[in-house]
Amino acid sequence: MSLPPIKRRSLLVAAPRLAGAVLVAALLGGCAVGPDYRAPGFQLPASWGKASPSVTTTGEEAENRPPELADWWKRLGDPTLNRLVDEAVAGNLDVATAKARVRQARATRQQAMGALAPSVTGSGSYSRADNGSNVSSSGDVTVSGPFDTFTLGSNASWELDLFGENRRAAEAATYGLDAAEETLRNTLLTLIGDVATYYVEARGYQARAALARRTAVSQRETAGLTRTKLQAGSASAVDVANAEGQAASTEANIPELESSYQQTVHQLAILLGQPPSALNETMKRSAPIPTPVKAIPRGVPANVLLSRPDVRLAERQYAQYTAKIGQAEAARYPDVSLVGEVTTSAAKVGDLAKSSSVSWSFGPSVSIPIFNAGQLKAAVDFAQAQRDEYFLTYHAAVLSALQDVENASVSLQQERIKYRSLSASAASYRQAVELARALYQSGASSFLDVLVAERSAYSADDTLLASRVAIATDYVALNKALGGGWTGKVDDRTPAVVDTQMAPRLVSFDRAGLKPRDPENQGVAEAFAH
């Protein structure tokens, strides 16, 4: 059955009214409740140091890091370290987890944005009915069926969001995506710092173990010389025992250093997302302890801290939970939606588009909270308390960042001063060993002088190597504290597990109904089994 002409005209007349209603609704949709986010300002030092003046800065003023903080590990001049950092960024499991959380936040934002748009659903049905047979008093039988009915329809709804509940949710989701991205950046910063630190420590253990071997060989030579002098009657058995005991004591340090080296290399491999022994061949060949070739400028402005990922993360979370207050507040106001429905039915499928009956409906729907025993007000109070928590967390993150930079800067500066003194000390002790051995061989000195000189020289050289490691690790810590890190692209859109069976398919189960016969569906069987 076709639509009567008069009804078709009424639809044409109603169309402009519908457009006008939608326009008015869109204008009204600009209303929002709750606080608008404003980045807080903080009094931060204009430069590093105790006597620095203060300046006021906000997170919005520090979006970009200075170029001298980017790729800082490359200034250590070690190609192996550079390659390990690249492999860690590509293979680290914590980074992969952070990427997955970025994808979650992106999908959550898409869902929140989708709530701002109208939703349309379609429906269809087919039915076959028989109203039964009628038998008259004369015995005649009248059959009134069966009848076929085909129906197609669509339903549309649009929440006008007059008070901004959905817009605040989308705003919060956008800040949540920003926070997830900052979490990824923070994970990368921590990862690169850990890779550099473990690499430096591994090279340090390598160098210290090599020093112990060289020293033990030299001390064994001294013990042999003392034994020769004993045979000649110019040395005592006590001197021989002391010489051999000192050589053995130095050799005893080697297994401990080798153990620490292997554990550090194992941890380094884990950071790269590889088995613990994966880097044994790579690290087997000795290399110098990485040394910074260029100091970090002391004039880096303090507001660079607001680009540190952890500080940016805290700021984005503060913004996110500020938006959630408006979302909770909007839930206390009326909710208005536009709802429409169109349905057509016919006795044949081919008649649905031409000879069919059409029914439609359109109108607003209003939901007003009347009594909820204070639940909605309590939700607003809860959101405000959460916002306060993240504001304080943000403030604490800024102060912690300042402390990290100052501490790392002082440590690096003082360690450099210490290293200069240790270098002079080690050089003096090496000279003392040469002089003590020469005097001992000529008989002008006792073996005790040689023993003390060798022990002191080995201790000074070992401490000097440890100080070189400390300088490099303090350099790493300072760059981490300043927020320097990875500037390359990171693929956060490719999933770790690629699903290949999303389309509908037939699955045959066994008699128990738990395990599919198709081996590819084993995961489904396990899900049913649990």
From TrEMBL:
Residues 118-140 are annotated as: Disordered. Keywords: Lipoprotein, Membrane, Palmitate, Transmembrane, Transmembrane beta strand. PANTHER family: OUTER MEMBRANE CATION EFFLUX PROTEIN (PTHR30203), OUTER MEMBRANE PROTEIN-RELATED (PTHR30203:SF25). The keyword Disulfide bond does not apply. Its main location: membrane. It comes from Ancylobacter vacuolatus. Belongs to the outer membrane factor (OMF) (TC 1.B.17) family. It is found in: Cell membrane. Gene3D superfamilies: Outer membrane efflux proteins (OEP). Residues 120-140 have a biased composition (Polar residues). It is a lipid-anchor. This is NodT family efflux transporter outer membrane factor (OMF) lipoprotein. InterPro entries: MdtP/NodT-like, OMP_efflux. It comes from the Bacteria.
